[in-house]
Amino acid sequence: MKKTLIAAALLAAVGAGSARADALLVTGAGATFPYPLYSKWFSDYNKLKPDVRFNYQSIGSGGGIQQITQRTVDFGASDAPMTNEEMAKAPGIQHIPTVLGAVVVTYQAPVAELRLTPETLAGLFLGEITNWNDPRLAKDNPGVKLPDAPVTIIHRSDGSGTTAIFTDYLSKVSPSWKAKVGAGKSVKWPAGLGAKGNEGVTGLVKQTPGAIGYVELAYANQNKLSMATLCNHDGHFVRPTLEGTSAAAAGVEMPADYRVSITDASGKDAYPIASFTYLLVYRDQQDKAKGEALAHFLWWAIHEGQQTAPSLDYAPLPKAVVSSVQKTLSTLTVQGKPVSLAASR
Amino acid sequence: MPPPADIAAQARAPAATPIPTRATAGGHAGDRVFALTLVALGGAVLLVVGVVVLELYRVAQPALAKGGLRFLIDRDWDPVAGSFGALPFVYGTVVTSAVAIVLAVPISVGMALFLSEMGPPKLRPVVSFLIETLAAIPSVVYGLWGLFVVVPLLRDHVQPALAKTLGFLPLFRGPTIGLGYLAAGVLLAIMILPTVASVTTEVLKTVPPSLREGALALGATRWEAIRMAILPYARPGILGAALLGLGRALGETMAVTMVIGNAPEISASLFAPGYSLPAVIANEFAEATGALHVGALAGLGLVLFGLALVLNSTARLLVRLVARGPRAVA
Q1: How many Å apart are CA B101 and CA B189, to the nearest integer?
Q2: Mutate which of B176, B287, B300 to disrupt the A interface (most A C-beta within 10 Å)?
Q3: What residues of A are in contact with residue B258 (Cβ under 8 Å)?
Q4: ipTM of this complex prediction, to 2 decimal places
């Protein structure tokens, strides 16, 4: 009796498995920031090629790196590039930049347009500037009437790529930030309150008079938050925009493995707090069908995929980066043999 | 972690010894199987706890090896510099839970007295249904409500009033920002209220009617009967109810992290922002980089486990002492 039941269950499981195996399933895991865009890409691509399905779990960049290192997924995704230590554990890994994101400074004060120099921004988050009528803020905003109100700093409490990008920028522009705090996904904040996620920071900033916080550009755009105009590397004040974000990527020299920080980039229009987000794949794919599907998808993503990015508030890759990613994709191999991308072209 | 075969062996091992004595008394094969199953289920609890502690200890090893017991008393939490101390989180957890218990227990006892002694019988089921509904609200909803309703209320009204009247105490000093220990404690109090109130109600219902009637017959007022006959009888049960509430307050994560301010600092003032053990684990674990950071977070898990154990044992001891009290008098 029991044996027949087990046999029946096994048969059912096998049956279900074979039914699902019709479409090729490629799995990935990682960053939450690009998740809305990736899921749009996967569904668009599935319409184009119904025999390939993607399954992406947005578990966070750290989890994505861990899973691709252990090869439990076919591709990973991360906002921050992998560290040398992490790279050593995953030999043969390749970063593929997909789109760009930016971090904006949002605030709650009766100031129509807030202009901040890097020194003032660092002063605020270091807890040195505690009132809105501070002379440093007044110097950045000539002719603007600043209120006499305390500044409340709001930062992310959860470990996040957004924090990593923001603190990376502050470390570049402020020696005292670099010495006291440093850069990372979680840091020891010298001042202020922590809130969970972009939505938590936004909620706190909105309801705390005099608050200043930082969130992703996409999130700020969709929620119509007030955003500060920042002074970039070349001394120009730039509003946070998708164009400014793409311009930041054009203003840096791209290393072969794409692991580069593009905060504080040079260029007239470059917005200073920007970063790539990456997909992580192995240069040599073990599974023939999956490897080829992945390579074709990546090719599609850096071409057709880029056109859907701005509508979802992600900045597309600049042309120069697209052409170098093309070259990188053509070096991908499946079981040691080069992948033919002819079908994609 | 031991390989699966070892776990299975461990699970079977404790089951093997006590069976023969019990089973020979019954004699039926069915009894033996039943007893074996129950022992295995009981043993499973121990096994799960053991595996959790062992695994936490294993993952926490890098952090514990670095600082040892200093981990418990260090106040610095700096993931960039790799310096980790648990004290601000332990402090935050204890303070918020204490505020919650102090606020929730008197209110719960009042509610329970209303439900079991004073309230109009027709109203009682309605009120008790509403209290139990509170328990079914997800904690993230409590957190959002706390952030958008409780925090502004505390910031604009309660905290300025407290600072004005009780400002001479260090507890109620400093800038009134709303987020902090007090907000988390108030929210936790509301969250544990249903548990404490409904258990207390059940406890009060077990008070023998003869006690109540006897007191009233001797000329006691309603209040005197409650104070002198009912509450002393129910005291161990009420403590037990508070204990259940404390358990929930210690482990609450989502609602606390949304209103406590998430700043790893130790402040005497209840107005100041703080941090709690479960909140920091939930916030940082997903994106923790490096074995040391993950280890420190696992270490915090161990500390939380230990804290729950210590508080639970203390409370149990208290219950036993209190339970002995009235009987000694009688």
Answers
A1: 6
A2: B287
A3: 195-196, 200
A4: 0.77
